[in-house]
Write a structure and sequence with these properties.
The complex is a heterodimer of chains A (248) and B (385).
Chain A (H helix, E strand, L loop, with lengths): L6 E12 L2 E12 L3 E5 L6 H9 L6 E6 L2 E2 L5 H6 L2 E4 L11 H7 L7 H5 L5 H13 L15 H14 L4 E5 L7 H14 L4 E5 L3 H7 L2 E6 L2 E6 L1 H5 L2 H8 L2
Parallel strand pairs in A: 3-8, 3-9, 6-7, 7-8
Antiparallel strand pairs in A: 1-2, 1-4, 4-5, 9-10
Helix pairs in contact in A: 3-5, 3-6, 5-6
Chain B lengths: L1 H8 L1 H22 L2 H26 L7 H20 L15 H5 L15 H25 L4 H21 L1 H4 L10 E2 L2 E2 L3 H27 L1 H11 L1 H5 L5 H27 L9 H14 L4 H21 L4 H15 L3 H27 L3 H11 L1
Antiparallel strand pairs in B: 1-2
Helix pairs in contact in B: 1-2, 1-9, 2-9, 3-9, 3-12, 3-13, 3-14, 4-6, 4-12, 6-12, 13-14, 13-16
Classes of the chains: A alpha/beta (248), B mainly alpha (385).
Amino acid sequence: MIANTNTQLALSDLTVSFDGFKAVDGLNLSIEKDELRVIIGPNGAGKTTVLDLICGKTRPTRGSVKFNNRELVGLAEHEIVRAGVGRKFQTPSIYENLSVYENLEVSFPRGRSVFGCLSFTDTPDVTERIQRVAEEIYLKDHLEVEGAVLSHGQKQWLEIGMLLMQEPRLLMLDEPVAGMGPAEREQTAELLNRICKGRCILIIEHDMEFVSRIAHKVTVLHLGKILAEGSMEQVQNDPQVIEVYLGH
Amino acid sequence: MNTLYKRLLGGKSGLTNLVVLAVLLLLVLPLSLDIFRLNLVGKYLTFAFVALGLVLLWGKAGVLSLGQGVFFGLGGYCMAMFLKLEASDPVSTKIQSTPGIPDFMDWNQFTHLPAFWVPFRHLPFSLCAVIALPVLVAGVVGFAMFRRRVGGVYFAIITQALALLLSLGIDGNQGYTGGRNGITDLRTLWGWDIRSNSAQYTLYFATCALLIMLIMAGQWLLSGKMGKLLNAMRDREDRVRFSGYDVSAIKVFIFCLAAGLSGLGGALFVLQVGFISPSLVGIIPSIEMVIFAAVGGRSSLYGAVYGALVVNTAKSLFSESLPQLWLFLMGGLFIAVVVLFPNGLAGAWELGKRKAGPLLEKIKSRRRILLPDAPLVSAFEQEKS
């Protein structure tokens, strides 16, 4: 049954239509372990919708999403998360009123049920994990800072850190470097290259320079369909891609 | 153990609040008020249970229910049914055409007790039902709505419709429920005359003790992970859902908790006031309960208690002297609080403390500078460090 043991995520014939408009149309895509895949494409190409379909925010009209050979279509959002899928939103979604520490603590994958939550205590392993993740996302010295006062870039990192707390095996990031300065982009690229080991990452990004630094493989989406797929170089030289997206 | 204490008491400021409230309720009020007024305070405090539930549900979880009167009423009716059956023994109802059933059933030509009344002959069942029935109803309603992501205004409207439904249902079925008059003429609880002065005192103190214990339980709940999670949910529900939490289950839990608190308040109301009627179940009382929480400060457990006390005291005073104006005044009070102090009395108190803090510091430091004797100053400084 398992065709390729390295394939972690397999989308087949994934389609969703909103009132007859097909935002994603018969999409086939597979991502392997340790792979960092970037999806690019013009506005309205259906990039964010693909993430919504995988994480259960939107239900597909047709097709399947297999993650480690488990069908995700039809599961509730929290069940998909518990299956190992983490998703970062386009605008940084962190808890503004909680400290960095608490943001990470709430994301720790224990005590997720009502009664588990009531009996949850901050044991040393939780504290240790939080410290480790905070160091990874460059927020080690900001643990007591309230989420609201972080800079935009730090919020983006914090949300990535919140996902890392869950130890997801698939990480989906929607425009992770939006609003970041050059130095922060640098650090983010480093971070992403570091965390893609042992899992796979799916990223939506516009900044081509940044894409070329992180992507193992690039998928170009246009009008809900795949226009091209391959290495950054291949894609950049594809006449169709130049035509609809990159420009001359 | 140490952390358990800390969580129950809510730290240093929580401890101060707790002591102030306990002194007020257990010493100041009983010593300064006659039993009639104290009984009124006891009645107000039963509304504080509902307000406490609303703090958790509305203030903390961000879910506004305009139907908490439903749960208050269900708890109250469960208690009243037991008391009514005890008051309707065959001897004291021998002039009825069917002795041994509540008077209003007799007026409606009932010849036997309806089946759903029968278990309420037993005190343990009735006491359990006081909390279990509201929790069950809230569980069913909450499950149906939160699963479907009904929230915000829609949830508020549906709970309000529920309040209307229940109050009309009780009103329209006099034979089963006592109708518009409610269930009245309640006398004893397992042989103990609840109308006597000593019983009124006992019930008042029991209400206070329960309230204080529940505030501590609430502090325990909010100081743990649940408090952070509720905060997170109010801020970014989607993020919480995509962190692997079943948001609807947590909302159902909080809704049930608020309902159980309201039911308990309703039962204590019946014990102290001696009756229950649909006028405590419908839309207006449900909205009044939200006002208690809003005036007190919808995210402060203590605020809920003071809100219930202040609004109800004002209601009593004004409806004694200016009955026609009361509703306008309450509307005005609500608007004033929401506009001036969005976090209610508790918010105003915090603001006052924050403003007064630097002022006190200033006075302290000025005094230090004004002290002429230099060695004394340094000794003071040393002592401080």
